[in-house]
Amino acid sequence: MKKLIIGLTGASGSAYFLRLADALSRRELELHLIATEHGTQVMEYETGVRLEERLLLWRQGPAKIIEEDNQNLFSPVASGSFQCDGMLILPCSMSAAAQISAGISETLLTRAADVMIKEKRPLVLVPRETPLSPVHLKNLYRLSKLGVTILPAMPGFYNRPQSMDDLIDFVAGKAMDSLGLQNDCYRRWEGKEKNEEKD
Ligand SMILES: Cc1cc2nc3c(=O)[nH]c(=O)nc-3n(C[C@H](O)[C@H](O)[C@H](O)COP(=O)(O)O)c2cc1C
């Protein structure tokens, strides 16, 4: 069974996290969820969803879901000996990105990310901030150079989204793609002939 770590931080865009966790909870996976205090608060503020309540729903699916305590550095996921197939942080705050890029690992989220980097395992960050300052860009660039995938929460419009759900699905689907998780969350680009008529 694949083991994944999913992080939620206090950046805007918790709807992406909800969509991803909804999709993953329907699969045979071991999911370790790490929510920061701000992540939980911002999600409740933005979506009205309480993590504890949503967990009850997700636990009805086939996934084995472990809710991690962000302050518990004794968790298995804090160690390189924990065999993990990948970690996704979405949305990822600039604060979390800065700490990870500097190797500061005082919480379980940042420690688990640090472990992914040192063990050369897939780590994907979905940052959400605008505009990005030189500090943000430098941190993201440094992470990218370390092999971390930076997948900004930037939905595409070429598939002609009709609703907010379409926009959310696009980013959640791209995040799943980045870890090689097959999905049909969003409509993929199928190409277009140069001389094809506009519809
Ligand atoms: C409503 C709200 C929206 C926020 N949106 C963002 C955001 O989009 N990006 C970001 O980097 N920080 C955002 N913040 C600030 C972070 O929550 C803050 O930096 C926090 O310390 C992040 O902590 P964490 O990484 O431990 O979750 C937001 C805060 C609030 C209250």
Automatic annotation (TrEMBL):
Binding locations of dimethylallyl phosphate? Y158, K174
Task: Give one Pfam family, short name only.
Answer: Flavoprotein
Looking up InterPro entries in the UniProt record yields: Flavin_trans-like, Flavoprotein, UbiX-like
Record's keyword annotation contains Translocase = no
Where along the chain is FMN bound?
G10, A11, S12, T36, R128
What enzyme category does the UniProt record give? transferase
Q: What is its EC number?
A: 2.5.1.129
Q: Please name the SUPFAM superfamilies in this protein's record.
A: Homo-oligomeric flavin-containing Cys decarboxylases, HFCD
- Flavoprotein domain ranges (all copies): 2-178
**Keyword set, alphabetical order:** Flavoprotein, FMN, Prenyltransferase, Transferase
Q: Which reaction does it catalyse?
A: dimethylallyl phosphate + FMNH2 = prenylated FMNH2 + phosphate
Give an example GO molecular function.
flavin prenyltransferase activity
Answer yes or no on keyword Transferase: yes
The entry assigns this protein to a family as follows:
Belongs to the UbiX/PAD1 family.
Q: What does this protein do?
A: Flavin prenyltransferase that catalyzes the synthesis of the prenylated FMN cofactor (prenyl-FMN) for 4-hydroxy-3-polyprenylbenzoic acid decarboxylase UbiD. The prenyltransferase is metal-independent and links a dimethylallyl moiety from dimethylallyl monophosphate (DMAP) to the flavin N5 and C6 atoms of FMN.
Instruction: Name it.
Output: Flavin prenyltransferase UbiX
